[in-house]
Automatic annotation (TrEMBL):
The keyword Signal applies. This is Endonuclease/exonuclease/phosphatase domain-containing protein. Residues 33-220 form the Endonuclease/exonuclease/phosphatase domain. It holds the Pfam family Exo_endo_phos. The keyword Protease does not apply. InterPro entries: CCR4/nocturin_mRNA_transcr (IPR050410), Endo/exonu/phosph_ase_sf (IPR036691), Endo/exonuclease/phosphatase (IPR005135). It comes from Nocardioides aquiterrae. SUPFAM superfamilies: DNase I-like. Residues 1-23 form the signal peptide. PANTHER family: CARBON CATABOLITE REPRESSOR PROTEIN 4, PROTEIN ANGEL. Keywords: Signal.
């Protein structure tokens, strides 16, 4: 009896050693974020937006937020040239960035170089204000520890600040839905979508209707086709296909975020299957 008790005590005192399965899960897990950082032209011009510092100070806070949230992969919106350049100057040895177009960095995708390597990148024309096209980035990345390929699209759909843009947002959603569906069907790999969609249910319902992509904050389409949007929604989204399993969503509206931008930092820990 005494020997059995000693064995139990020794087992409880022994350090926990992760199994091979747990270690593999860790290598397949990454933290994904979508982050509208408030473009430099809102705060650095002759009529700066009240309540915000100029973009250099705000970009430094954005970097701190990415580090604090342990982000591995992020879709940036309003990531304008001064912010893009400062980001690379500050952390370009640790982060890779791909912009939608060489002359337009507003919509860019960033990834930690110790987690991913770039395989290729391209852009997709999506209607923006008044239907004018902007080029939204898509990348194929390789997860270093597992060699699994991951596809990411990041976008910013037009707001109503220059007139009713609902028709252009609907056209943008059709384009984005077609891109993510095609990648999912052809590549049989994780596909992630990030972005400031400037819509809630009006984005979620048509985008997820074919069942290819699902949201980091839930919601679903019932068998009859009725849309059940997530209970709590903003305009900032992360979505993934069937090879992407979302953990608990994080919607960060902390004081540091509010000193950085007018959007929350949204993120989720995901497992890439």
């Amino acid at each position: 009896m005494l020997s059995r008790i000693l064995l139990v005590l020794l087992a409880l005192a022994a350090p926990l050693v992760p199994t091979a399965a747990h270690a593999a899960d860790g290598r397949r897990q990454v933290t994904v974020a979508s982050f509208n950082v408030l473009g430099a032209d809102h705060t650095d011009g002759r009529h700066p937006r009240r309540g915000f510092d100029e973009s250099p100070a705000r970009l430094d806070r954005a970097i701190k937020l990415l580090r604090r949230t342990h982000v591995d992969l992020v879709g940036f919106q309003e990531f304008q040239r001064p912010q893009y350049d400062r980001f690379l100057a500050k952390v370009g040895d640790r982060w890779g960035v791909y912009a939608g177009a060489e002359w337009d960095t507003d919509n860019s995708i960033g990834w930690r170089l110790d987690r991913f390597e770039l395989v290729r990148g391209w852009s997709v024309p999506v209607p923006y204000f008044h239907g004018n096209l902007r080029y939204m980035p898509v990348v194929e990345l390789r997860l270093l520890h597992t060699k699994r390929h991951v596809f990411v699209m990041n976008t910013h759909n037009p707001a109503d600040t220059r007139g009713n843009a609902a028709a252009w947002r609907a056209e943008a959603v059709r384009t984005e839905r077609a891109v993510t569906r095609k990648l999912s069907n052809q590549e049989h790999a994780p596909v992630i979508m990030t972005g400031d969609m400037n819509d809630r249910a009006a984005f979620f319902c048509p985008f997820t209707r074919n069942g290819v992509m699902h949201s980091f904050i839930g919601g679903r389409h019932r068998n009859g086709g009725d849309c059940e949007p997530p209970a709590s929604m903003g305009v900032d989204w992360i979505l993934g296909n069937r090879y992407v399993d979302f953990g608990a969503p994080r919607i960060d509206r902390s004081a540091l975020v509010e000193a950085t931008t007018d959007h929350p930092l949204v993120s989720s820990r995901v497992t890439l299957r």
